[in-house]
């Protein structure tokens, strides 16, 4: 009888030990498991973060509405970050980057004497002109819009800053006109398709570039921003985002 109990104890202890041996690596794995970062390496000159963090999900600016009220002085101040590499005065010299007089609305690679990258040449083949949207996307994230560009600048993520800067570029030798306001780009034109409540304050950001395709405006009435929401125009299919 007692011999039997003794064996039970021994057997039980062995079982417990086995369990520990099996379990410990699993637990340790769960605790110490590390995800590889999406991108390796260090980030220099990190782009400015927007307070709302709505980058990428925003509608493209409605140039016909935002340009007439843009702050040129603020745009000129923002250009300070470009001056390390660019002059903009008429007849200014090329530096690390090309002179930018008249670049807005002009052809991509507008300076004949400048040694542009192959990446920029490839981009020119697809989008030959620096229109507002093209310039906006380039300045948001140069390396994403023109992969391989030799403009080593992280980008300006703050939309109002970009708008002011683009208005300033426009004032420097550009003949690009201001387009008519575009209702499909107005705040409220693209309510998140899933009916999620719009972010507090500001106009509701679209949930993604693709979400802006013809989704009917459903939540517009519930939106807090009534100003500048003219009778909820149906969200017309906006231009293809990016290329
Ligand atoms: C670190 C240097 C550097 C900084 C800072 C920089 N750029 Fe550039 N930029 C370049 C270079 C180099 C090119 C040529 C890119 C290529 O060939 O791929 C370029 C190209 C451009 C072009 C295209 C010109 C053309 O002829 O097609 C524009 C527009 C431009 N930059 C605007 C800006 C603006 C606006 C800023 C500031 C927000 C800025 N850049 C900041 C170096 C810079």
Short overview:
With 243 residues, the protein is mainly α. It has seven helices and no strands.
Q: Could you give the topology of this structure?
A:
Layout (H helix, E strand, L loop, with lengths): L1 H31 L30 H4 L5 H7 L39 H9 L5 H9 L1 H4 L13 H13 L72
The structure holds heme C.
Percent range for β-strand residues = under 5%
Looking at the structure, the CATH topology of the largest domain is: Cytochrome Bc1 Complex, Chain D, domain 2
SS elements, strand count: 0
Low-confidence stretches: 50-56, 195-229
- Rg, please? 28 Å
The number of domains: 2
Give the mean pLDDT. 78
User: Class of the largest domain, according to the CATH hierarchy?
Assistant: Mainly Alpha
Q: How much helix is in the residues?
A: 25-40%
Biggest sheet character: none
Q: Give the end-to-end Cα distance, rounded to a whole number of Å.
A: 83 Å
Heteromolecules bound = heme C
Q: What letter string, H or E per element, gives the SSE order?
A: HHHHHHH
Approximate shape: elongated
Total count of helical runs of at least 4 residues: 7
* Class inferred from helices and paired strands: mainly alpha
User: For this structure, what is the CATH homologous superfamily of the largest domain?
Assistant: Cytochrome c-like domain
């Amino acid at each position: 009888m007692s011999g039997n109990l003794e064996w039970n104890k021994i057997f039980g202890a062995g079982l417990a030990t086995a369990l520990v041996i099996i379990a410990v690596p699993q637990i340790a794995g769960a605790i110490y498991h590390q995800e590889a970062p999406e991108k390796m390496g260090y980030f220099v000159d990190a782009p400015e973060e927007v307070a709302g963090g709505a980058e990428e999900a925003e509608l493209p600016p409605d140039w016909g509405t935002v340009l007439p009220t843009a702050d040129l002085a603020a745009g000129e101040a923002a250009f300070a970050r470009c001056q390390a590499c660019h002059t903009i005065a008429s007849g200014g010299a090329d530096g690390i980057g090309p002179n930018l007089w008249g670049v807005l609305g002009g052809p991509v690679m507008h300076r004949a004497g400048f040694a542009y990258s192959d990446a920029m040449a490839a981009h020119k083949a697809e989008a030959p002109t620096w229109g507002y949207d093209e310039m906006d996307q380039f300045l948001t994230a140069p390396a994403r819009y023109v992969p391989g560009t030799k403009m080593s600048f992280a980008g300006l993520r703050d939309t109002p800053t970009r708008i002011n800067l683009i208005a300033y570029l426009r004032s420097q030798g550009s003949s690009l006109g201001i387009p008519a306001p575009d209702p499909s780009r107005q705040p409220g034109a693209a309510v998140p398709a899933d009916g999620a409540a719009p972010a507090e304050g500001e106009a509701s950001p679209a949930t993604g570039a693709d979400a802006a395709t013809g989704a009917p405006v459903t939540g517009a009435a519930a939106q807090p921003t009534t100003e500048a929401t003219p009778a909820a125009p149906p969200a017309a299919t906006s231009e293809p985002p990016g290329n």
